[in-house]
Write a structure and sequence with these properties.
By secondary structure, this protein is α+β, with helices and mostly antiparallel strands. It has 19 helices and 25 strands. A hairpin with a 2-residue loop joins strand 3 and strand 4.
C-alpha cells in the first residue's frame, strides 16, 4: 500500500510538469465522525515521517501545477486555491510592489492577497480553536454562520444567528455595533436620536434609524459593522496592528447586497469550501496585517462581503486570534491545553468573549489577578472596558463578575447563560450613574472584594474584615462585631444584612427616608437567535425569521428586598379629613425570567416588567 502511495505521488509530480493540469479527482464523502488535527501524538515515528513526506510532495506537486500556466502578473506569485476554477476563469487582479533589496535583486510583495498561513501556524491555530478532536457538527456551526443583519425592519440593526456555536462572537460584535450607533452617531452621518426624542421610553432603537431619508439602514449598519470589527481587532492587537483573515478563493463573484455597499460573495462559490483540519486552514485562509487604522478600515470595507458569507464568524475569530498573536493567546489563558471552542456543543468559551471585550483571552471575569501564593494565580480582566459582561452564573453563585465588566464605559453588556450569549443595553448613559446608596454599596463591595481570596466565594478573614471596616468608615457596635467574627471568617451575606440594619450615620445602609436608593429606567434585551414569527399581509401570512428584541422597565426600590417594597406600597394609604381614604395605586407586579437574575447582579434590588413574551437568554 505504501508503494502505491509513493507511485501516486510521483505520478502527480510528473503530471505537474505537463502543460495543462489534469482533471481533479472527486473524493468520496467522509463519514460524520470526529475530525482530528494534522499532528497526532499517537502516530509512530515511521508513519509520521511518511505522512510528512507525502504532504511535502503533494504540496510541491500542487504548487507546480498552479504555476504551470503563465497568467500575467500572477504567474510569479503564489496563487490562491480556486474553487471549480477552469482555464477560462478570470483571476482576481493582484497589485504588485517591487522592492529593491540590494544590487541586482528585487522581490515581489503581494498587497492584494496577503500571505498563506505557515504549516506550524495552521496547526497551532486549529489546535487552539478546536483542540485535538472535534465533531463535524461543531465545525459546521462555525463555518456556516455569517455576520449579517436581520432583514426584518423591526430588528434591522441586529445580527442574526442561525447556528448555535458562534453566539459569543456575534454578541460581542453586536454590542460594539450598538455602542457606535447609540453613542457615536456623528461618525455615521445621522443625528443622535437621543437629542430629539421627547421620551426615551417611546423610542424604538432598531426601527427609528430608517426615518432619515438621506441614508438607508443598510448604510448605517454597514458603517457601524466595519468600525466595530476594526475596533475589536485593534483592541486585540493592542492598538498596534490588525490582522485580517480572508478567504483564499478564486472565481467567486460579488453581487450587490442589501446588507451593505460591499456586495456579497456568491454562495455557490463557497459550497465546496470546508474547514475540517489544519491543512484546510492552510489552504483556504490568507492573512493581511495592517499597522495603521486607515489601512485596516480600508481593507475591512473591502472584506465585508466575506464577513457576511457563511465563513464570516470563523474569519472574524481567526482575525482576532492572529491580531492578538497565538503565543500571547496561550500566555493569557490559565489552561492553554483546552480548546477555545468548548465541547460537546461548540460554544464560544469565556476566553473568546473576554478577548473581544478587553483584548486579552483571560478565562475569568473578576478584576485583575487572583494570587494564591507559591506561583499559583488566576487571570481576570486587566483594564476598564467599553462594553461590559453579565452572567446568569453569578446569580447562581458560580462566579463573581468584577467592577470592570459590570460597570463599562457605555451601558451595554454581553449577557451569558449556560449555553448562549445575548446583549443588554440602555439608550442613556444615566442608567450608569450611581445614586447615594449605590455609591456607598459600591465602595463597601469593592473593599470587601479586595480582601476576598476565595475566588468569589464571598467570605474573608477577620484580619481582612477589620481592614474593610477601616477603609469604609463603618462603626459596628461591639455585639455586631463579635457576632460576625465568632466563626473566624466573615460571610458577605451576613455582613450585608448587618449593614442594612445599621444607620447610615454609622456607615451603614439604613435610610429612614426610604428614598436613598430609588431609581427607574428602561433597558433593552436583544437575542440574535432567529425565531419564526408570522407576518400578516394582504397576500397571506408569511413566516419570517426574526431575532427577539424586548424592552424592560426596571425599577430599583429603596428597600433592600422587592417583597418588602411591594408589601409596603400595597398597604400604603392616605387618610384625609372627614375620614375619607384615598388608596395609593398598587404598583404593577414585577415579572420574572432568568434575565432578571442577570440584571440583579448589576442592580441588586431591581424589579422588571415587560410586554409580551418574556425575554429569553437561551
Amino acid at each position: 500500500m505504501a508503494d502505491q502511495e509513493e507511485e501516486d505521488l510521483r505520478m502527480a509530480l510528473r503530471m505537474s510538469m505537463q502543460h495543462s493540469p489534469p482533471e481533479p479527482k472527486r473524493s468520496k464523502p467522509r463519514e460524520n465522525v470526529a475530525v482530528t488535527s494534522i499532528d497526532s501524538s499517537e502516530e509512530s515515528p515511521e508513519i509520521k515521517a511518511r505522512r510528512l513526506q507525502r504532504e511535502l510532495m503533494a504540496a510541491a506537486a500542487e504548487r507546480r501545477m498552479m504555476m504551470g500556466k503563465n497568467t500575467g502578473s500572477i504567474s510569479t506569485l503564489e496563487r490562491p486555491v480556486g474553487l471549480n476554477v477552469s482555464d477560462n476563469a478570470v483571476p482576481v487582479v493582484i497589485e504588485d510592489k517591487r522592492v529593491s533589496t540590494g544590487p541586482g535583486s528585487e522581490k515581489v510583495e503581494t498587497l492584494g492577497y496577503g500571505r498563506l498561513l505557515s504549516h506550524d501556524e495552521a496547526n497551532q491555530l486549529f489546535s487552539i480553536i478546536f483542540g485535538g478532536g472535534v465533531s463535524r457538527d461543531i465545525l459546521a456551526q462555525w463555518t456556516n454562520q455569517g455576520i449579517r443583519f436581520s432583514p426584518d425592519p423591526e430588528t434591522s440593526m441586529g445580527l442574526v444567528q442561525h447556528e448555535g456555536g458562534p453566539c459569543g462572537v456575534l454578541a460581542a460584535i453586536q454590542a460594539f455595533v450598538l455602542k457606535n450607533l447609540l453613542f457615536s452617531p456623528d461618525k455615521f452621518g445621522w443625528q443622535d436620536p437621543g437629542s430629539t426624542r421627547s421620551s426615551k421610553s417611546e423610542w424604538d432603537v432598531f426601527s427609528c434609524l430608517t426615518e432619515d431619508g438621506k441614508t438607508s439602514i443598510s448604510e448605517f449598519s454597514y458603517r457601524a459593522l466595519v468600525r466595530s470589527i476594526g475596533e475589536i481587532l485593534s483592541l486585540c492587537g493592542s492598538n498596534r496592528r490588525v490582522v485580517i483573515a480572508t478567504l483564499n478563493v478564486l472565481g467567486h463573484e460579488n453581487k450587490s447586497s442589501k446588507d451593505g455597499p460591499g456586495g456579497e460573495i456568491d454562495s455557490k462559490g463557497l459550497e465546496t469550501l470546508s474547514i475540517e483540519s489544519a491543512l484546510d486552514l492552510q489552504r483556504i485562509i490568507r492573512v493581511n496585517e495592517c499597522t495603521s487604522p486607515a489601512s485596516a478600515f480600508k481593507k475591512l470595507e473591502a472584506m465585508v462581503p466575506e464577513f457576511q458569507s457563511r465563513m464570516g464568524a470563523m474569519l472574524f475569530l481567526i482575525s482576532a486570534l492572529l491580531s492578538r498573536g497565538l503565543d500571547s493567546i496561550q500566555t493569557d489563558r490559565d489552561d492553554p491545553s483546552l480548546p477555545l471552542v468548548t465541547a460537546p456543543f461548540g460554544h464560544a468559551s469565556q476566553e473568546i468573549v473576554n478577548l473581544l471585550l478587553c483584548g486579552q483571552a483571560v478565562p475569568n471575569v473578576f478584576d485583575g489577578r487572583m494570587d494564591f501564593g507559591g506561583g499559583m494565580f488566576l487571570k481576570g480582566i486587566p483594564v476598564n472596558v467599553e462594553v461590559g459582561f453579565l452572567t446568569l452564573l453569578e446569580s447562581l453563585n458560580f462566579c463573581k463578575v468584577g467592577h470592570y465588566l459590570k460597570y463599562p464605559k457605555y451601558p451595554i453588556w454581553v449577557v451569558g447563560s449556560e449555553s448562549h450569549y445575548t446583549v443588554l443595553f440602555a439608550l442613556d448613559t444615566s442608567v450608569q450613574d450611581e445614586n447615594e446608596l449605590e455609591v456607598r454599596e459600591s465602595q463597601i463591595r469593592k473593599a470587601f472584594d479586595a480582601q476576598d481570596q476565595s475566588g468569589g466565594g464571598g467570605f474573608i478573614s477577620v484580619e481582612g474584615f477589620h481592614q474593610v471596616l477601616k477603609e469604609t468608615n463603618i462603626n459596628l457596635p461591639p455585639e455586631k462585631l463579635d457576632y460576625l467574627c465568632n466563626t473566624g471568617f466573615i460571610v458577605r451575606s451576613e455582613f450585608w444584612q448587618v449593614l442594612l440594619d445599621l444607620d447610615k450615620s454609622l456607615g451603614g445602609l439604613k435610610d429612614s427616608t426610604g428614598l436613598m436608593g430609588k431609581k427607574v429606567f428602561d433597558i433593552y434585551h436583544f437575542n440574535g437567535i432567529a425565531k419564526s414569527v408570522v407576518n400578516g399581509t394582504q397576500l397571506g401570512e408569511i413566516p419570517v425569521q426574526r431575532p427577539r428584541l424586548t424592552k424592560l422597565r426596571v425599577s430599583v426600590p429603596p428597600r433592600w428586598t422587592p417583597e418588602e417594597f411591594i408589601a409596603d406600597m400595597a398597604a400604603t394609604s392616605v387618610s384625609t379629613e372627614k375620614d375619607a381614604v384615598v388608596e395609593v395605586s398598587k404598583p404593577e407586579p414585577c415579572q420574572h425570567a432568568p434575565l432578571v437574575d442577570c440584571i440583579r447582579t448589576r442592580w441588586p434590588r431591581a424589579l422588571c416588567n415587560w410586554v409580551g413574551d418574556p425575554p429569553s437568554i437561551v
